[in-house]
Sequence to fold (668 residues):
Amino acid sequence: MSENAKKRIEELRKVLAYHSHRYYVLDDPEISDYEYDMLFRELQDLEREYPQFDDPLSPTRRVGGQVAERFEKVTHRVPLKSLQDVFSKEELFDYLAAIRRSVPDAEFVLEYKIDGLSVSLEYENGEFVRGATRGDGLVGEDVTENLKTIGAIPMHLTQKVPYLCVRGEVYMPKSVFNALNEEREKASQSLFANPRNAAAGSLRLLDPAIVAKRRLSIFVFNLQAAQGFACATHAESIRRLSELGFKVIPEERVFTDDEELFSEILRRGEARDTLDFEIDGAVVKLNGLSQRPLVGELPNVPKWACAYKYPPEEKETLLRGITIQVGRTGVLTPAAELLPVRISGSTVSRTTLHNEDFIREKDLRIGDTVRVRKAGEIIPEILGPVLGKRPKDAVPYEFPHTCPSCGEAAVRREDEAAWRCVNAACPAQRARKLIHFCSRGAMDLDTLGESRVELFLEKGILSDLASIYHMDYAAIAALDGMGEKSAENLRAAVEKSKSNCLSKLIFALGIPQVGEKAALILARRFPTMDELENASVEDLCALPDVGEISARFIRAFFESEQNRALIAALKDAGVNMRFTGKAQGTKLQGMTVVITGTLNGVPRSEAEAFLTDQGAKASGSVSKKTSALIAGDAAGSKLEKARALGVPVYTWEEFLSEYGLSFDSAKA
Fold:
């Protein structure tokens, strides 16, 4: 019986692998989803009944394997280098001419530059053995189990090549991205900014079962290393990789004429809206593999390939209206309400207009057709109105000089661009101040989120920050959807927050210009609230990262009778007013450290706080004064700039090792 089962298991694995290839790679399925699911379920049942025939490359493993605690590091056999960028026809033609000085008969291959996450795939005797992220190009992370969930990655090649390493770009199809964001919106979850972020975030999840649900795909675009597999040209290598079962980069073409090449680059850029994958440029490569050593390589990029980067995508849409939001510091911020338009992978219907001056300088009017793009492919921004498309009845926008929430007069100081509501009892400010006070990084009252704050304000349970520590828990328990257990959990969280470090309280108070890092610096220098209350502008300006404007905001906050009364009320409620954190270390004293990319399981805010704890300045930009750059996954232009300036580059683990630091013990 077991021999029959083994035979059927092997047969099902081959059949399912065949149909997966038809579906995910060729986009030409031969059977229905239902028929595939029935075969899949039969295989699952047989493997469960006969575990002795287990195979780590079975199609059933594509729905998720063992959950990882962390990703192991992988040193790439061949570095996964980035590409030098060109931005104009002139730059491209100069690049092509430079190659022809070494290779007069050069042919060039044109490919899409997929906007995803670069990975390497390794095969031994035709079987998939390992996959890793690009990392810093030299060292990546082993994400083999997650890559197994991607149907377009073959587990077995059509030929038993002794060794093969290829490079590909994992991406999330636009159609999948839209469906995923719709699901997240219905579940009240935060939305992904664009398909690239969604793909990168998904591939680095520790649970492959969740990765499988994200329906990622891949295009293989380069042969990295091989044994028993030789090709003369890049185009030939792509064709042969396709024959081995890979989903290869689409529409690859070879050119000898520069004008024809450039025309095709432009055509593809204009047609990118029609693709189901995001691109941010076109890649030009020297076709002859034996000719590439004649051209050479730089430490970070090959000289035989470049990326023509398309300018940020711009779209026209209608400015339907302008609404005013009141922030927790009273600032009135205008927002544009737009006719929804798809830009760079996501739909944009709203964006900030910053302040009154911005609207006046752009001469924006309700009813205008406006040009919109995404700054850095992430943040939507309005470039200005489209000339000749303004309605005749459109009038200049009059910025309100009263608060839309409380109706009180707003003021604009001479040295500021913003209008502010100065009414301390303003409902909009009150809600936002409470939400900020309870947020992560502040008092960490996760059980008192935005919806509960708004509900408790409506019911009169909350009124100001101090009221958090005097809530009526019996009244809370009686509310719909709450109950006694929820009320008790909330009580316990509130009591726990009283012992938070002074730095958290300073940040929670919402003083303008005082973020988490500044709050920690203030608490270390003035370890009691009384000392901070009495600090002069000169005392404050002497601190790193505290400028004169910030110092005056801090001084003005503590000079307010209402704010002093608030501090007193919090003190009476038992809220800690002393710095209880660790004394600042000296191992990184005087260093300026920049973090770029995604670190392995470490939130950026925690990593930067840790660096600050050790005496370093955590900066957001690279310069000649930068002491070190910590590069995580998907590191971008900061990494390139650091290398150009000769700034030492480390992974997170390498940096900790270099300076004898222990992140876990420091957190504990």
